Amino acid sequence: MRYWEPGTYYALGDVVEFEGHRYKIIQAHTSQSDWTPPYTPALWGRMDDHDGGGERHEGREHHHRESESEKRHDYMPPTQSGLPSGEGVNVHHEERQKHWYDLDDHRKKELEIGGGLAAGAALLAGGYMAFKAHEKNEDEKKAQTWSLQNWMHDAEARTAQYRQFGPRGPATWIINRGKNIPKSAITVGKEHSWDLYICRAFYDGGIQVGKASDAFKKGAVIGYKHEEIHLDTYEILVGDINGLRWVDVHGRLNVQSLGYTPVEGGRESDGTPLYIAEAPHKGAVHPGKASEKLDGAYIPYDGGEKCVKEYRVLCYA
């Protein structure tokens, strides 16, 4: 049995052992020291430990003492063909740029049966709150799962590039999990005694901009339809503030009048670009979002969202 190691390229079909459990690759990648299989469900699927396919390295008593964080990632999405998740279908880069509804019915069925939705399903099973399930029909859920895993795939690739080659400019989005904030994360301000950073994450078909802090219960908070959404898997903006500048805005944003190029933020589910804002509220300056369709900057706060008319947008200097 091959043991998982950092700094190793793993291709589709590879199986490794880590901490006495076996995992099968979902997305090909080069491993990182903090991308261990239990904590990267977008990359690895947990296999059945009882199928005789490998030596066990823990006793029965230890198995029953698994931590809750390990149990969250045990899910292997079932497929109609019985294939393990991630087998039977390859998803090409160009295809990932398409919306689920733009795929023909035959291709959608291939993706469903062959495990092409496995990474997104694993994220959902691991506790990622991508949408409100009771508000979606089955096809909408598949569309959201497809979009979620494509966002994660792009984010993981961008992060791997950053870690291998370093920053390509003053601002880069990289994947982060939980409350461990990278040292290079761009600080916006303080609320009480904790620092606030800029984050974004997939939710309900879009990529929403919000705020991160080691004081938050999961690490990141985004605002959406007047609600706060707490997430522990998100992208955080890292870089050098000396290559950036905050530009004053009042009311609805007009990108052409900024005089500078705004840093990439996110997008609404309809494709409307979202930009990175900072806005004062209750004695602190909070990260949030702005767009040419919003009346001001929207920041997640106190279980909902606040609209602030006087704010600033992050641009390249």
From TrEMBL:
Q: Which Pfam families match?
A: CBM_5_12 (PF02839), DM9 (PF11901)
* Record field: transmembrane: none
Hydrolase keyword on record? yes
Q: Which InterPro entries match?
A: CBM5/12, CBM_sf_5/12, DM9_repeat
All copies of the Chitin-binding type-3 domain together span 4-44
* Name of the protein in its database record: Carbohydrate-binding module family 12 protein
What organism is the protein native to?
A: Mycena sanguinolenta
Q: GO terms for CC?
A: extracellular region
> Gene3D superfamilies under this entry?
Carbohydrate-binding module superfamily 5/12 (2.10.10.20)
Q: Where is the composition biased (Basic and acidic residues)?
A: 46-75
